[in-house]
Amino acid sequence: MKLLKLVPDNTNIDFMRWRNVALVLSILLTVASLVLVGARGLNLGVDFVGGQMIRTTFAQPVDVEQLRTRVGALGLGEASIQEFGGPRSFQIRLPRPEGGEAAANRAASQVRGMIAAQYPGARVDAVETVSGKVSEELATDGALAILFAMIGIAMYIWFRFEWQFGVGALVTLFHDVAMTLGFFSLTQLQVDLNVVAAILTIVGYSLNDTVVIYDRIRENLRKYRKMAIVPLLNLSLNETLSRTMVTSLSILLALGILLVLGPDVIFGLTIAIFLGIFVGTYSSIYISSPILVWLGVKPDSFLRTDEREGADPAGAAPA
Predict the structure, then answer these.
(1) pTM of this structure
(2) Which residue from 270, 91, 277, 264 is spatially nearest to 195, judged by alpha carbons?
(3) Cα pseudo-dihedral 76, 80, 84, 87, rounded to 10
């Protein structure tokens, strides 16, 4: 039986032809993402801001404004109410009550009682309470985890390859994380510890794809010493394209099924990884590779002086 090949063996796509267009597009989207995060902010979950989060499912359609008014009448502070996974499921977020755990329990009981009285058949699915001190520690630790992961990865690439590759990996990771945060700022999906785990997963996947491509580029730099850098990058990308497509498509297929059929509690995690895989695949081709050209890498950049002088034109790539 003939094996299925997503990418034919003789594939020769001129990826580098569009590198400048991709650069402009990536810069615009990255800047837009950062501006969006700065101006609109992120919809931080209870994990990061503290307070109470109550998830409830109603037996009938609910007027959100009426629900907000009824929750506000309890005197528990300004409530944030959002649809959660369906037209009858909602997430009620309340500020941290004064008085510690006892006050938090009383507030949750008040909301439960109001829902039971005003909305027959409704059920409370979950109640989560996080103190201010814990939420601040979680936010700090989550941000540091992402930052240290990116720096550690850049240093690893630097030592394994050359500094230009390390810079390329760091820029690629920054691009992927910025895009993900911009998406969450635009959609105002809740950012919690699950999303932090998703971002770390995106960083790991992007690194894996980038290392595979960089390793092939390094091999071809040694093999084709007279080949211009742009054709060499195209050759390397085409040689690794099959692996990239199979890996990305298989992961996206699994995540797509989770998005449609998976539980609501992991929706943020799933959509963050789904977006990250898509963006990571794009950036490994149009960010990590072209940046080597912009940093002045040439086929003989990493050769010793005697190797450059003794380079044989026969090492050029076949026509």
Answers:
(1) 0.71
(2) 270
(3) 90
Please name the helix (run of DSSP H) or strand (run of DSSP E) that holds residue 56, with its range, or none.
strand 51-57
Q: Please provide the DSSP assignment of 250-291 as one string.
A: HHHHHHHHHHHHS-GGGHHHHHHHHHHHHHHHHHHHHTTTHH
d(CA 128, CA 141): 20
Tokens 């498509």, located at residue: 249
Q: Rounded CA gap, 242 and 221, in Å?
A: 20
Q: What is the pLDDT of residues 221-278, one digit of tens each?
A: 888 877 888 898 888 888 888 888 888 888 889 888 988 887 776 788 889 999 989 8
In angstroms, the CA 188 to CA 152 distance is 30
- CB of 222 within 8 A of CB of 203? no
* DSSP label of 227: S
Nearest 5°: the CA angle 290, 276, 192 is 140
Which domains are assigned to the chain? Answer: 15-43+135-315 (1.20.1640.10), 51-130 (3.30.70.3400)
